[in-house]
Amino acid sequence: MCIHPITDDCNKHLLRSKQKIYRYMPLMYLLEMLVKKQIRFNNVLSWKDPYENYLSKHNYHKNQKKVDVRIFAKSFFGICWTTAEESELMWNTYRSKYDKDIVLKIESTVGKIVDICLDDKGANGGNKAFYYGYEIKYLSQEQMVTNLKDSYEFQDFYDVYLKYLFLKRDPYKDEQEYRFIAQIQVNAPFQSMPDYVQIPFSNCFIDKIVIDPITSDIDVAYARKVISMIKNNITIEKSGLYSVLPIKNIEIV
Question: How many domains does the structure of the chain reveal?
Answer without folding.
Answer: 1
